[in-house]
């Protein structure tokens, strides 16, 4: 409101940048990033009239490729509609789906020690066939459809089922690679055989590879680009736990939160964080 009044009165108005936080794993769980949970925040980030850019503050080890693509496409659609540049700032990590989100920006800035990359697809699990044999457990599964029990962890792996899974991964990987090609283009300076095989690097090495555009941080970069009086508007600050969860009344929500936190920490731990 104050900005509008100053503009109406012909008074100088400081440049405005909205900051959208994209922090955490992408996909399932109460804490996960998804288009459903972020849609309103994304709209709010692009809503103010007269702002000079939208910034993405990213700290994500990845997750669902579908949600990564949906969030990134929504950001790009609004950037085109509003004719606004999008600037991504990587904190600890933008890997796998986290880098998918960063690539939605027109420019990526990272700390020299940020972890960047992991442009690949992974599927991990456990096999329990030896355990159930040792325990003398008889596994009983009845399906309608020969592939319905595919990749059952309590049965020995079958080559045709593994080949099917690898085909799914190849399709997802191809989409990820094409997105990075489309968004980064000639800025990529290393061969695809190095960039697109799932490796990850520090921010400094990523700058040499063309995966990021510069080293720095959000506040310093925005002040350098738009002046010391730039207004930084945080769209979605971190949520604090409600009273019920703090005093232990919501036991189910608390248990779900602990499980989500453990899963998230495991995802970050993969990158030494």
Summarize the structure.
The protein is of the alpha/beta class and 273 residues long. It has one domain: 2-enoyl-CoA Hydratase, Chain A, domain 1. The protein contains eleven helices and eight strands.
Q: Which features would summarize this protein structure in a list?
A:
2-enoyl-CoA Hydratase, Chain A, domain 1; alpha/beta; 11 helices; 273 residues; eight-stranded mixed sheet
Task: Describe what you observe in this structure.
This protein is α/β, with parallel strands linked by helices and 273 residues long. It has a single domain, classed as 2-enoyl-CoA Hydratase, Chain A, domain 1 (Alpha-Beta Complex), CATH 3.90.226.10. Helix content is 44%, strand content 15%. It is built from 11 helices and 8 strands. It has helices spanning 2-8, 35-46, 65-82, 97-102, 129-135, 159-184, 192-195, 203-209, 218-226, 243-246, 251-269; strands spanning 16-23, 53-60, 86-95, 107-110, 115-117, 200-202, 214-215, 231-234. Strands 1, 2, 3, 4, 5, 6, 7 and 8 form an 8-stranded mixed β-sheet that branches. The longest helix is centred in the middle third of the chain and has 26 residues, at 159-184. It is elongated, with a radius of gyration of 22 Å. The two termini are 41 Å apart.
Overall body shape: elongated
Q: Kindly state the mean pLDDT as a whole number?
A: 85
Beta-strand share of residues: 15-25%
Question: In the CATH hierarchy, what is the class?
Answer: Alpha Beta
* Main beta-sheet annotation: 8 strands, mixed
Q: Helix/strand-derived class?
A: alpha/beta
The CATH homologous superfamily is named 2-enoyl-CoA Hydratase, Chain A, domain 1
Radius of gyration: 22 Å
């Amino acid at each position: 409101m104050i900005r509008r009044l100053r503009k109406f009165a012909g008074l100088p108005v400081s440049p405005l940048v909205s900051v959208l936080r994209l922090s955490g794993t992408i996909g399932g769980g109460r804490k996960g990033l998804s288009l459903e949970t972020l849609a309103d925040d994304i709209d709010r980030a692009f809503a103010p009239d007269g702002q000079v850019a939208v910034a993405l503050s990213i700290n994500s080890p990845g997750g669902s490729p579908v949600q990564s693509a949906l969030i990134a496409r929504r950001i790009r659609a609004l950037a085109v509609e509003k004719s606004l540049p999008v600037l991504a700032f990587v904190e600890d990590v933008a890997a796998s789906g986290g880098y998918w989100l960063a690539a939605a920006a027109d420019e990526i800035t990272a700390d020299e020690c940020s972890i960047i990359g992991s442009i690949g697809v992974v599927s991990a699990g456990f096999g329990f066939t030896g355990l159930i044999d040792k325990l003398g457990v008889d596994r009983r599964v009845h399906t309608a459809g020969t592939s319905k029990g595919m990749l059952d962890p309590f049965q020995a792996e079958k080559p045709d089922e593994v080949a099917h899974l690898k085909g799914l991964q190849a399709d997802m990987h191809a989409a990820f690679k094409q997105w990075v090609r489309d968004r980064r283009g000639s800025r990529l300076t290393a061969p695809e055989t190095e960039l697109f095989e799932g490796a990850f690097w520090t921010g400094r090495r990523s700058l040499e590879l063309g995966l990021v555009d510069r080293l720095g941080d959000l506040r310093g970069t925005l002040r350098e680009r738009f002046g010391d009086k730039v207004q930084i508007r945080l769209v979605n600050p971190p949520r604090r736990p409600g009273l019920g969860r703090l005093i232990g009344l919501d036991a189910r929500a608390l248990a779900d939160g602990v499980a989500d936190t453990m899963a998230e920490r495991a995802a970050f731990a993969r990158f030494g964080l």
